[in-house]
Design brief:
Length: 110
């Protein structure tokens, strides 16, 4: 019985550690723009999220998506960590889009 409670408390504590660590890592990831973007903080955050497992990583990113100060960081991390479902594409982020000339589109530039 003591072992079971210890295991439950330990696992809960690990979840709390991950949660605090994820927020800290998101804070360290700079905004997604040309002048501030640095890849190392994103790689570090992605490594922690991968270690958590897919479900817990998704839950953590979803939790912080309510805070608009992390939206760009979450967008980059989601693209780094997850693939589109078979037969589907990720829609492009709504942060602006390319303008094409000569009656071309995204598919013409792959």
């Amino acid at each position: 019985m003591k072992f079971r409670w210890g295991l439950i408390v330990g696992l809960s504590f690990c979840g709390l550690l991950y949660s605090n660590q994820v927020e800290s890592l998101l804070t360290n990831c700079p905004q997604y723009n040309f002048e501030q973007y640095r890849v190392i903080p994103y790689i570090q955050a992605a490594m922690v999220l991968q270690e958590m497992g897919s479900r817990e990583a998704l839950d953590s990113l979803y939790k912080y998506s309510d805070d608009s100060k992390y939206l760009y960081q979450i967008m980059v991390l989601a693209r780094m960590l997850f693939e589109a479902e078979p037969g589907k594409d990720f829609r492009r982020p709504l942060i602006g889009g390319a303008v094409f000339i000569g009656d071309t589109d995204y598919d013409d530039w792959h």
